[in-house]
Design a protein that fits this description.
The chain folds into two domains: 2-30 and 224-347, Rossmann fold; 44-181, Nitrogenase molybdenum iron protein domain (Rossmann fold). Strands 1, 2, 10, 11, 12, 13, 14 and 15 form an eight-stranded mixed sheet that branches. Strands 5-8-9 form a three-stranded parallel sheet, with no helix packed on it. A two-stranded antiparallel ribbon has the order 3-4. It has helices at residues 44-52, 65-68, 101-106, 144-149, 167-171, 187-197, 201-226, 249-256, 297-304, 313-316, 325-328, 333-347, and strands at residues 2-7, 10-15, 76-79, 85-88, 95-96, 114-116, 134-136, 154-157, 177-179, 230-237, 240-244, 260-261, 270-271, 285-290, 320-323. α7 packs parallel to α12. With 349 residues, it is α/β, with parallel strands linked by helices. It contains twelve helices and 15 strands. The chain is globular, with a radius of gyration of 21 Å. It starts with a strand and ends with a helix. This is Iron complex transport system substrate-binding protein. Belongs to the bacterial solute-binding protein 8 family. Residues 1-37 form the signal peptide.
Amino acid sequence: MQDITVSAGKIRKGLLPASLGLLLAAALLSGCSSDTANYGADSAAPAAAAANAQPSAEPSAEPSAAAQTAETAYPLTVTDELGHELTLEAVPQRIFAPYLEDSLVVLGVKPVAQWANNGQGQAYLQDKLAGVPLLDFNSGLPSPEVVMDLQPDLIVLHNANYAENGVYEQYSKIAPTYVFKQAAGDLDSSVTMLGELIGKQEAAAEGLAAYHRKVEEAQAALAPHMDGKKALIIRFNSRGMFLMGGVYGGFVLADQLGIAKSDLVAAENSLELSLELLPEIDADYIFLANDTANSGETFYKELTESALWKSIPAVQAGHVYNVDDRYWLGGGIVAYNNVIDDVLEIIAP
């Protein structure tokens, strides 16, 4: 029995592990790291890196602030998705938007620091984020002191969990702070709003239009192959195994490409699963995202080396695929384009 491993858009074949056994445990997916707002967990290394490396919020080839204001009029007052009102007096030049780097790249903007986990940023974006210091979120959000050292003039939090436990109150004292409920689940809204906040509305519209054209083309190519079929993503990290529903790669499959979800996650973003429920996996295609930065290898082996794994119809049919966790667990136009490329290569080559 074989699986097909997708890595950076390339497929390679290899033997599926032969024996298995574990329960699938789940947790809320946010930012591919803990969303616990442990902002008191200060780190001297990130603080020093942030203080010593403060890149411009604009690449050298970008238009001037004066040109940008033709799109957005400042002062600009908006209300975020949690009901907080904020006012930007001028075009933001120093933006801190952890785990929204994907969208900033599409808009042609470099942040003052980038999200990282265990010292690793989002690998698929690093060619566009050269020189941007890493800020580790492994133990929670950075402290207000660390964020203050970045000297941001706009802070954007990509989901509501990031604003909990007093984080919003602390951060909003440093700079105007906008909070999304879940930016990765509504690209049209989040990319458009980012474009409005930073005077990049035209770039936002162009990026979204190109993305939607790709989605429509992919839907047409996949339709003959996926009629009546279901798909499921299983994510592995140091905490266990998770069935992914409608976020990140799951959002692309279900909401963008129109591929039906497994009944197990029909109404869930993630799901804790016991060993007894494994036979209930009803997906025709299963994608395995091993979160290597978060030590998912142990749980991956426990699952794929179990005999029970062989009883799942998708496994018996050879429809199990290892995919690149670096963007299947990412959120944004760049990540979602990569996911679409993988799905097309696997299902409609």
